[in-house]
Design a protein that fits this description.
The complex is a heterodimer of chains A (534) and B (776). The relative contact order of chain A is 0.08. Chain A has 534 residues and is an alpha+beta fold. The N and C termini of chain A lie far apart (72 Å). With 776 residues, chain B is α+β, with helices and mostly antiparallel strands. In chain B, the strands form 8 sheets. Chain B has an 8-stranded mixed β-sheet, with helices on both faces. A 5-stranded mixed β-sheet of chain B has the order 9-17-16-15-10. Chain B is built from 19 helices and 31 strands. In chain B, a hairpin with a 5-residue loop joins strand 15 and strand 16. The two termini of chain B are 52 Å apart. The chains are: A alpha+beta (534), B alpha+beta (776). At the A-B interface, helix 1, helix 3, helix 4, helix 5 and helix 6 of A face helix 1, helix 3, strand 29, helix 17 and helix 19 of B.
């Protein structure tokens, strides 16, 4: 038997340096071992240049500084492999199961600061610089459990237990939320946590028991957990770097200096490149530090959405004044994804099934693009120029999306069909904007689809067919027939070409019938059998 | 409510440890498999030179590194642990790279060069039948004469029922950690339902006796059958690498590897020919069932057997001729999955009955009731096992009543006649599921109980906790059996050096088999302690009562006895006294299910100890524009016997139902035309989320016939899965509401999964006038 513990080879990536100010209150044998190991390697990497600019954040109440790891290290990998916090688990490494859910204290424009559940598997470690983070280990202990844990135990909401810490973290956010006031929001809160055992009924019972119970005055929360200003970051490890500029000048400088840069905001898509394709990025530029990019405003009939506005923030903001957008966001990713993903990221990714795109197209939106030298507005329909290709030029970035609010009387609707309603990628998505004259004749129409072509795009032949004809079923069916001449969708795991086309036609028909009924304009339904409900 | 199991607290605070969470083993090496990109190919050359030279790579192992048996397998050793001359499916492991971190092991795996020569591949059931590519032998069950009644039947229907595979999607992927010890011993922590299977396989592969191998399992993060046989290979690879390097080695699959390398629920294709009386009674049924076993045998024959044994579901079929075969294809080897063929068999009969009801214009729940097992002339299964079944009709009528079935059905008919795009449907289906492994030799349980002199107890048994609440139930049985409190019983990890030669924890049998063994061990210890306590208290041993951690003589009720009660003492006092008297404080319990035997050659016998029964009513709402649907309400009436743990059983019923809802609705396993799995992660493979579960979800326990199992309880792991077939029946009702011209329409064929696309396609086919072009 060969036993060779003596000649352990060093990891090529070097060690990891962990420093904490406060002593751990509930240190376990397992992570104590790692703590010792980390201290040992600390000396080994002390001369490493990155040690000068560590990533700093607050983890379960302890100030933490990390260096010596590549900037593409995910938060999940850090927690499990370097911090010894193994209660946060990997179920899929693609943000689709929620087993890795953790909470980050975020500054919300309306709510002050608030705990937000996110998928640790998709978060790159440097992007949490300056943040306050809570993992399952920081939520309660066997001796003094948190009330969300008590509720879950009382309702027998765990079976195999593997997904349970993630579920607890989603309950933890729900516990602190002040806005869980509609039935659909309860499903939305938990749809990012897959459980294969329970059938969810017991988990939902626990959610109902604790939702909003921990909601306090936002300032109170803010004082308790002071989120530090993020600060600028310039983190390097070997030949990889992460830069987070605070000012535009710093941004332009970084973009010019590192021509091989990649911009990152929420990183929910970039994270997949790391976890699934194991890609490394020589220079990541984080956009979180630029305040202008996260602004929302309503002015002169236009809804201006900053590029890095989180989708959960957008959903909340749109709920009253642009319900069409809010409804689309209901079945858009999960709570964890929406807490992280940004409006700009969804559009710049230019996926044919990016669900914001049809809404922006139908509303006749424009995209504000800025470079060091200039600024320009591009109409949404000119933005998507090819499969995952946009009109963005080198050195340019998306600043904001401008959405003209539909005038009173204009019919609008947005729909999405997928194999599963929640947390699924569209088979077909659609958004419609139809202005009907008093005479009943369609004056103008913008009809946009996702999932039918290589880019999200408008159906101009359908629009032409509708315009000038009566807004009636015969007219709509005739116009919808044009879709077959305009699109040749593909067959894939999400649906056949026949189904995609049929859906596009039926969604338009269903939209027409919705415009006849007042129901459509009402609140988001709790358990609909689809998003189109004539 | 009783105190929740300590396990639940550990789940909720993150301190429950799964294999990948083990941190007390320092710096294990990491193994990463190199897999075939082809479904069928000859291996021409494997070049490991550049991989071996990479920094951090400790070993690259090929088949020739295996000192023992190069082939493994649950029943037949027909799976090369590491392929050496040929690969039989896309994802088959050719080499194993051992590195000091996941990144280095993966880089090493990418550096291994394998040259292949591709061969023709068999990729589905149709191709396998055409090529005569099968595993094992056919299984046939016959009763009476089929041809004659079929020829004369007032209604004769023929058709085919397809059902899809299903990925287990346990949240914890396959993982094993192997630690070499002195003298060639090997300890393996594995995420497995079958520790003995792991021990056996590791020993065979390493070429060492089983006594050198210990497999320990504290808990499994979901199994559902997927870790009954398929954990063995990964554990053996980890052990092989550990033996080779002399270091602990961990092998953990990521989600994509897990989904693309491991087997799933068997897809089935069943041709039927059925004859009905005009009153709806089924007169004769012929079924030819084909399953897709994948590339190796695994448990496929047993799965097929159970499918055939459940083609009758809860119905008396006077004349039958069932025959089944397992197809061999170049796909991952399909394996056990909750229900184990039962769902695939029951789906066939339920589809036949819905179709017959439609053609005979009989309300489907009435037609089903006419076919249920019942009086003594109608209480024998096709394979000859008696089924005392008067309670089935009682269960059926009770469920119809508590679910207001008749009233709701007419309300739905009224709703549908008035609604153009949104339609509803309601369906009711029964479940009768046979309890026992159909391989009789597996039906045994074991327990080993240790009482320490302070009265604390270690409970060992042969079952694995994987979320089904076995640990909770065993603690209850043990605490009750010894008369101690639950918190004085510590459930131990399942370990092959405590309980040897165990069957897998499967077939819904974990509680029945191990519970009986635990109860027996408790009885042995209690009778020894009673003798000791009788001397201690000066009373008759037979009169003593053990309860709540106290040992009491007659009259000593309550915790303190008092001046008027008889003498009593604590369980710990008795244990301490027993130790002083040198009375042994440990005991072994064992159990073997009596009276079961099945002759597969003849298709006759008594394969089951008893049957677990239930029924469900599902109401769906279907969107006629998109094919999407939602469950409006579920009513379940299910017989769990005298439940050992109410909430655990309820969780099994709800969880099983929703898991089956996934199989029925959104879970769609897809391979491309080269045999590569397309749906290899949750972004493309969708299991139910919280929004798929009806808010109105009613579960009631049925007061059924007595159970022969432990404490009068009944097995509950698998039976509720098949309750979800009620959803298919409800969809049938909703979709046929669109029928425009009943006489011209072909019967509604509804194959699984009933995805929104499949449902919309079906609806379009009902609207003959409007959409002749519907095809998808």
């Amino acid at each position: 038997m060969r036993r060779s513990y003596g000649d352990v080879r060093r990891r090529p990536s070097g060690g990891c340096e962990v420093a904490r100010r406060r002593a751990w209150s509930s240190i376990t044998a397992a992570n104590y071992g790692l703590w010792v190991a980390s201290r040992a390697t600390l000396r080994a990497v002390a001369v490493h240049p990155s040690a000068a600019h560590p990533i700093q954040f607050e983890l379960n109440g302890a100030a933490t500084a990390v260096s010596g790891l590549p900037p593409t290290t995910t938060l999940l990998a850090y927690l499990r492999e370097h911090a010894g916090l193994v209660g946060t688990r990997e179920g899929c490494a693609e943000g689709d199961c929620g087993a890795c859910s953790i909470a980050i204290l975020e500054i919300d424009p309306d709510l002050g600061s608030s705990w937000r559940t996110v998928n640790a598997c998709l978060i790159l470690l440097p992007t949490v610089h300056g943040k306050t983070i809570r993992t399952i280990e920081g939520v309660g202990s066997t001796e003094s459990p948190h009330c969300v844990q008590e509720a879950l135990v009382r309702h027998h909401g765990s079976q195999c237990g593997y997904c349970t810490p993630g579920v607890v973290m989603s309950l933890f956010e729900a516990h602190h939320r002040t806005d869980l006031d509609e039935a659909w929001k309860f499903d939305d809160q938990l749809c990012g946590n897959l459980c294969r055992c329970t059938g969810y009924r017991s988990i939902r019972a626990a959610l109902h028991e604790i939702a909003g119970r921990g909601a306090r005055n936002p300032t109170e929360v803010q004082n308790e957990h002071k989120p530090r200003t993020p600060g600028d970051v310039h983190y390097t490890h070997n030949n990889e770097r992460f830069i987070r500029p605070q000012r535009w000048s710093q941004l332009w400088e970084a973009m010019d200096t590192y021509t091989d840069h990649t911009l990152v905001a929420g990183g929910t898509d970039l994270g997949l490149e790391v976890t699934k394709k194991h890609r490394r990025f020589p220079c990541l530029i984080g956009l979180d530090g630029l305040a202008e990019l996260s602004q929302l405003s309503w002015r002169d009939g236009t809804f201006r959405v900053g590029a890095t506005v989180r989708l959960s923030v957008l959903e909340r903001a749109a709920s009253e004044r642009l319900p069409m957008l809010a409804r689309m966001l209901r079945y858009f990713g999960s709570r964890q994804i929406k807490n992280r993903a940004t409006a700009g990221g969804n559009l710049c990714h230019a996926s044919p099934v990016g669900d914001l795109a049809p809404v922006v197209l139908a509303l006749g939106g424009a995209l504000l693009l800025r470079s060091r030298e200039s600024e320009r507005r591009v109409k949404a329909e000119d933005f998507f120029i090819g499969y995952r290709k946009t009109a963005l030029r080198i050195g340019e970035l998306l600043v904001a999306i401008e959405l003209p609010l539909p005038a009173p009387g204009v019919h609008v609707g947005a729909y999405k069909v997928s194999k599963r309603r929640e947390l699924d990628i569209s088979t077909t998505s659609a958004a419609f904007w139809v202005e009907v004259e008093r005479s009943g004749i369609v004056a103008r129409a913008r009809i946009a689809f996702g999932g039918l072509a290589r880019t999200p795009r408008r159906a101009h032949r359908v629009e032409t067919a509708l315009t000038g004809t009566p807004w009636c079923e015969t007219g709509v069916v005739a116009a919808a027939a044009q879709l077959a001449h305009e699109f040749t969708p593909v067959d894939d795991v999400r649906g056949s070409a026949w189904y995609r086309l049929k859906l596009a036609q039926n969604l338009l028909l269903g939209f027409y019938h919705e415009t006849l009924s007042p129901r459509a304009a009402g609140p988001t339904p709790a358990r609909p059998c689809g998003t189109v409900l004539p | 409510m009783k105190t929740p199991d300590a396990n639940a607290w550990r789940h909720c605070n993150g301190s429950a440890v799964y294999v990948d969470d083990i941190r007390w083993v320092r710096d294990p090496l990491v193994a990463y498999p190199v897999v075939s990109p082809h479904a069928h190919a000859d291996i021409l050359e494997v070049d490991t030179v550049s991989a071996s030279g990479l920094a951090g790579v400790h070993a690259v192992l090929l088949a020739d590194a295996i000192p023992g048996s190069p082939a493994i397998g649950a029943v037949t050793a027909d799976e090369a642990l590491l392929a050496h001359d040929r690969v039989h499916y896309c994802g088959q492991i050719v080499a194993l790279v051992v590195g000091d971190a996941p990144d280095t092991a993966r880089a090493g795996a990418e550096a291994v060069c394998v040259r292949y020569r591709q061969l023709d591949a068999v990729l589905d059931i149709e191709a396998a039948i055409a090529a005569g590519s099968f595993h094992g032998t056919p299984h046939r069950i016959r009763r009476g004469d089929v041809d004659h009644p079929l020829d004369r039947a007032p209604l004769r229907i023929r058709g085919t029922v397809h059902s899809q595979g299903q990925d287990h999607f346990y949240l914890e992927t396959h993982a094993a950690l192997a630690i070499p010890g002195e003298g060639g011993e090997m300890t393996v922590y594995a995420s497995t339902q079958h520790p003995t299977g792991v021990q056996t396989t590791v020993a065979a592969v390493l070429g060492i006796p089983r006594h050198l191998v210990r497999c320990e399992v504290t808990r499994v993060g979901g199994g559902f059958g997927g870790k009954e046989t398929q954990a063995q290979g990964y554990a053996a690879l980890a052990a092989l690498a550990a033996q080779h390097t002399g270091r602990p080695v961990k092998l953990r699959l990521d989600r994509e590897q897990d989904m693309s390398q491991t087997g799933k629920r068997h897809p089935f294709r069943s041709h039927y020919d059925a004859g009905f009386h005009s009153d709806g009674r089924l007169l004769a049924l012929r079924v030819r069932a084909y399953s897709d076993g994948g590339w190796s045998t695994d448990l496929s024959e047993a799965v097929l057997d159970r499918a055939l044994l459940h083609l009758d579901n809860a119905y008396h079929l006077p004349n039958v001729d069932f025959e089944g075969r397992v197809c061999r294809t170049n796909l991952p080897s399909n394996t056990a999955f909750r229900g184990f063929g039962g769902p695939q068999g029951m789906l066939v009969i339920e589809r036949i009955l819905d179709r017959a009801a439609q053609e005979l214009d009989i309300e489907p729940s009435l037609l089903r009731r006419r076919n249920l097992y019942g009086d003594p002339s109608r209480n024998t299964t096709p394979y000859g096992q008696r089924f005392a079944a008067d309670h089935l009709i009682r269960l059926w009528d009770e469920l119809r009543s508590i679910s207001s079935f008749t009233q709701r059905r007419s309300e739905i008919e009224a709703f549908n006649s008035d609604s153009r795009f949104i339609r509803r449907g309601i369906g009711i289906t029964p479940v009768k599921f046979g309890i026992s492994f159909t391989t009789a030799s597996l039906n045994h349980g074991g327990a080993f109980l240790i009482v320490y002199a302070d009265g604390s107890v270690q409970l060992n048994h042969g079952g694995v906790e994987m979320g089904q609440g076995l640990r909770d139930k065993m603690v209850t049985i043990c605490a009750q059996g010894l008369g101690v409190t639950r918190d004085s019983v510590r459930p131990m990890p399942t370990s092959t050096d405590k309980i040897p030669n165990t069957p897998p924890t499967a077939a819904s049998s974990g509680s029945d088999l191990n519970g009986a063994a635990v109860a027996q061990a408790c009885g042995k210890i209690r009778s020894r302690l009673a003798t000791v306590a009788a001397q201690l208290l000066g009373v008759e041993a037979a009169s003593l009562k053990f309860a709540g951690g106290r040992v009491m003589s007659p009259g000593a009720d309550g915790a303190h006895g008092g001046p008027h009660g008889g003498p009593q003492c604590s369980f710990a006092d008795v244990a301490a006294q027993a130790w002083r008297q040198r009375v042994p404080l440990s005991a072994v319990g064992s159990y073997a299910t009596p009276g079961i035997a099945y002759d597969r050659e003849r298709g006759r016998g008594t394969p089951f100890h008893y049957f677990a029964c239930g029924a469900a009513v599902a109401e769906v709402e279907v969107n006629g524009l998109t094919g999407e649907y939602a469950l409006r309400r579920i009513d379940i009436l299910h017989d769990v016997g005298k439940s050992v743990a109410d909430e655990v059983d309820r969780g099994q019923i709800e969880g099983g139902f929703i898991q089956a809802l996934g199989w029925i609705s959104c879970e769609d396993v897809r391979f491309d035309d080269a045999g590569r799995l397309l749906t290899r992660g949750p972004s493309t493979y969708k299991i139910p989320t919280i929004g798929d579960v009806p808010t109105d979800f009613r579960v009631t326990f049925f007061d059924g016939p007595p159970s022969p199992a432990i404490l009068g309880s009944k097995a509950v792991g698998e039976p509720p899965y098949m309750l979800a077939l009620s959803v298919v029946s409800a969809l049938h009702h909703a979709i046929t509401s669109w029928d425009e011209s009943a006489t011209d329409l072909p019967p509604l064929a509804l194959d699984l999964p009933c995805s929104p696309q499949a449902v919309l396609c079906a609806i379009e086919h009902r609207k003959v006038t409007s959409n002749p072009d519907a095809s998808a």
